Amino acid sequence: GTLTEKLKGDEPDFNRKAFDDLIIRKMFVVPSFEIHGGVKGLFDLGPPACGLKAAMIDLWRKHFVLTENMLEMECTCLTPEVVLKTSGHVDRFTDLMVKDPATGECFRADKLLEDAIDDLIEKNPTMPTEEKEDHLRTQRQADAFSPGELDTLLTKYGCKGPSGEAYSPSFPFNLMFKTSIGPEGTSVGFLRPETAQGLFVNFRRLLDANAGKMPFAAAQIGNGFRNEIAPRSGLLRVREFCMGEIEHFVDPNDKSHANFPTVADKVLVLFGRDDQLGSGKTKKISIGEAVKSGLVNNETLGYFMARTQLYMEKIGMNPECLRFRQHLATEMAHYAADCWDLEIKSSYGWVECVGHADRACYDLEVHSKATNTPMVATVKFDKPQEMEVAKLKFDRKALGMVFKKDARTVSAALEALAESWKDFEPIATALEASGKTTVDGFEITKEMVSWEKTMKKVHEAKFTPSVVEPSFGMGRILYSLLEHSFYQRDMDEQRNVMKFNPQVAPQKCAVLPISSNPECNAAVDEIAAELMQSDLATRVDKSTAALGRRYARSDEVGVPFAVTVDFETLTDGTVTIRERDSMVQVRVPKKEVCNVVFDIVHQRTTWEQVTKNYPVVQVDEGDGTPAE
Amino acid sequence: GTLTEKLKGDEPDFNRKAFDDLIIRKMFVVPSFEIHGGVKGLFDLGPPACGLKAAMIDLWRKHFVLTENMLEMECTCLTPEVVLKTSGHVDRFTDLMVKDPATGECFRADKLLEDAIDDLIEKNPTMPTEEKEDHLRTQRQADAFSPGELDTLLTKYGCKGPSGEAYSPSFPFNLMFKTSIGPEGTSVGFLRPETAQGLFVNFRRLLDANAGKMPFAAAQIGNGFRNEIAPRSGLLRVREFCMGEIEHFVDPNDKSHANFPTVADKVLVLFGRDDQLGSGKTKKISIGEAVKSGLVNNETLGYFMARTQLYMEKIGMNPECLRFRQHLATEMAHYAADCWDLEIKSSYGWVECVGHADRACYDLEVHSKATNTPMVATVKFDKPQEMEVAKLKFDRKALGMVFKKDARTVSAALEALAESWKDFEPIATALEASGKTTVDGFEITKEMVSWEKTMKKVHEAKFTPSVVEPSFGMGRILYSLLEHSFYQRDMDEQRNVMKFNPQVAPQKCAVLPISSNPECNAAVDEIAAELMQSDLATRVDKSTAALGRRYARSDEVGVPFAVTVDFETLTDGTVTIRERDSMVQVRVPKKEVCNVVFDIVHQRTTWEQVTKNYPVVQVDEGDGTPAE
């Protein structure tokens, strides 16, 4: 996004060094193929991040797909060229690139400009505000300039390659990974840059599967691939990433949403386009008001924005670090009706993590046209409506002589237009004025067809649905959640905590014996087995490290509860359960541990309630015991 | 597999036409990019198959990863060339291909031979048994012949291309999809053909994450890609597929498994290599006995075979259609200790769906060697052991003069060997005999090092772990489960049922009003909302079709339970719950519906128990009402 505020780790509470160290050391995320030298922009998820991601996706499926009976699909990553040619990706899915002519090294031109302006401002702290504003305005538009404009600006800001030479002129570089499908080597394919196309091309089958009923949504979770020119910002700009996309198909003339009332009062932080160009300030406003006032284009778009906010809160994202930024008119595709990005604030600044776009009828129309496949839905009227139509009469002979086997295609195209006088009128006008016109690439003349404008009673109408598309960058959300979850007790570098909530925590419970006494170990095994039986991922730590150190280790990977078997357990059968963030402990009969943890994880009770049902134990953990 | 028995749909009970029709019509699986003409070997999963797959993977994770605390990772599909060069895939991941010289069309040579032999036998029903056996023996080895042998056989069996010309000589075709990573276009990458390599290259971090403890397992679920020469057999041989792989790292000198006793009595159907070459008959035998008798190489391998069998039974696979086939000596990689494929019988015959391979130390050794990264684990002895070692003395000057900056590498390599006299002895012998020898590619001479054979007390030993690898083809398992779940009531083509068990069923419950009466609809909505709240995917069918037809529709997508709101509901608040396969109905207060379904899905009760707790209703559904 062009409006990303660069925080550059100057958030006072965020200790990047400690965070990065924890992330790698605990194997949340590691560079892919590290021992072979690695590859820029590729990362592997290790065990705790895998568990976190699985829980995030499970909740996504329940929050979106299950609750609204969306039709989930899983389409392939390999995509033949014709599909991405049709969607526009082959021609337009590009970033502007420059090369250092001496070394051949490649760079993303807009990022060079952004960095040059940052540098300039940093080096001139006394720069007059007006001049600074001027530079910043240029910076914000960095990804909207033409190649020529960018070249001029790179020269103006004195950008030079690592070799010291000026950069090559900028040129568009297609970000899709290309391959060849089949043994002949003649069939070009790409790795999909997004998951949406698989849903669009299946529209007809999806509509059938939904018994022809509109509106409806399809959804897909899967990987996308982009050959980023210069991957950076850790997990935020990578070459292979997980997306969750929803395509909600809706009548373009009625974008209301039946469930909108359930979210109308939800207050969101909106950064509308006028505010971006004007005050620079966001607004807190209910989505109901935002739609009513026209700030957000329609109910369906607004509904999904609110549902996304609710999802983010559910997985434990800090609501103070969420905002919706509207695309500027210059940023949006020409066909789009309105776009709002959910941006999440991390140490890298505000980063777009979920797009919400009303893409109008663009996608279905291009695939329909390229394949000659009608991609329309039907709306049935409560009572028949009178409609102006054209009644056509063809001169079949004239048509046949000119178009041969295509004559049928031409007449069908005209019949389709004739279903509404509004659509046919331009053809009629042209034929009357000049005696000829073009329909679907065929030149027709006045001799071939005559018409009559008339009224017709119709019981239904066909239309190409509009698409409202919420598109989730799961990897970016995962990374942001890692940052939002990280803190240090008393700002102590040795006492890192990940405060995952029990729903998303990769492991739900740790079980620890206070001593290596065989009876203690047996009780630990028994409790762990029972937790596992209930599908609660459990971590057993029988190491001889001090208890405080073992608590600290489980805090680091965000385990919400730790159960300790001590000598009391052997006499009265009770154990302690410690809650990670408060470090409060309760004493619970060991037979009840599994139910307590299960009920909290499944939101049937709360920790607060548990502290009322069981005796709280006084424990001083303030010994600053480090994890390792 | 070469031993695939071709059933060619001649299973008496399997109606392929009805099955295929259902699969497409209900959008379980559809050809990818259909409206654009499709691509061979690429298929999309539609809503019911997506739900089924998500449930299968969830159970897989719980059955394998969670229960045994495996370390799950998610590595990238994009893989740089160096990694797959090291693993051997760049050089050896090939199938033999021939071309029709006139048309350029490509074919898999072994499959042409197999088909030619099938044809020959089919056309000669009176062929003497001995001659037939001879042809079949050739057929079974089809994928083991050299290019020259295959060419001779294709000529012998008169194989000709579609153009009528003889095929080109056969040549190896690499099955990996190639692409280029990064903007420079100079860095070759491939789409991974399996997920295992990502785990191998991360071995050191994984061992650390497991606190250095052995044995342990890593696991990964994700997509693999193979550019099949001639994809066929529907979903069984495709170009993009989901795999679940486990790499269990174990001491090569101790392949026992702590949990083996828990499965030792499990009886499996084994098709050992001797039986394949001899009787042609399988054996039913407990895995405990199979390991004890040496038929299965070791406990760890046997443990996973039994666990796989249990998983298959859990997801609802027909146990009669499962067998484990051992690889013939000629089939196995030279380094492998033993391999058993779980084969599942479908209408395409016996198809390998899960490999279980003891790959010895091959994978870690090649990556270690290629990257100069030690990939070893440590075993600590209970009491120190006396060990024969070599005590080395280097002439640092002599080493330095010859090897310069590599001197340290050479001395380290020698020190590593010296840790065990057994490993160092060949070096000593060679240096004594000829005064020089080669270590890790460096030629060393007698002047550089002297040694002494001595005894040393050691407390631990380092070793390269062996890998036992269960590798699941999730797509093949999914397809087999679809076939195993399909049946027709009374062999009636109109009454198709998918008998998914409640754990894997994509939708758990249907809710239907007997009339479009608003009170009925309100009750339906209330029940459906409560089910959804409990994360039970629910299908509401308010259409005006007859009740029997609506039941049939939900049977077709395998919904195990259907709740019907009728006029009694409005007076006494009870509804009926119908079980799909028995068609038995019980009458239950509507407030209890959610708990009943939840408890069955989570295996806290059974349908049988439910029929005892609630009154059974007599209903005659035998009207053969078709679904559509």
Topology readout:
The structure is a homodimer of 628-residue chains.
Chain A: H1 16-25, E1 29-31, E2 43-45, H2 47-66, E3 71-73, E4 78-80, H3 81-87, H4 89-92, E5 94-99, E6 106-108, H5 109-123, H6 129-140, H7 147-156, E7 171-174, E8 178-180, E9 188-191, H8 196-201, H9 203-209, E10 216-225, E11 240-250, E12 267-271, H10 273-277, E13 283-286, H11 287-292, H12 299-315, E14 322-326, E15 338-346, E16 349-358, H13 362-371, E17 377-394, H14 396-403, H15 407-418, H16 421-434, E18 436-439, E19 442-445, E20 449-463, E21 466-473, H17 474-485, E22 486-488, E23 496-498, E24 509-513, H18 518-533, E25 538-540, H19 547-556, E26 561-565, H20 567-572, E27 574-579, E28 585-589, H21 593-601, H22 607-613, E29 616-617
Parallel strand pairs in A: 3-10, 12-14, 24-25, 24-26
Antiparallel strand pairs in A: 1-2, 4-9, 5-6, 5-7, 8-9, 10-11, 11-21, 12-13, 14-15, 15-16, 16-21, 17-20, 18-19, 22-23, 26-27, 27-28, 28-29
Helix pairs in contact in A: 2-12, 5-6, 5-7
Overview of this protein structure:
- Two copies of one chain form a homodimer.
- Chain A is of the alpha+beta class and 628 residues long.
- Chain A is 36% helix and 27% strand.
- The first copy, chain A, has three domains: 1-67 and 217-376 and 464-495, 2-Layer Sandwich (BirA Bifunctional Protein, domain 2), CATH 3.30.930.10; 377-461, 2-Layer Sandwich (Signal recognition particle alu RNA binding heterodimer, srp9/1); 507-617, Rossmann fold.
- In chain A, a hairpin with a 2-residue loop joins strand 18 and strand 19.
- In chain A, helix 2 (47-66) runs antiparallel to helix 12.
- The interface between A and B is large, with 83 and 83 residues.
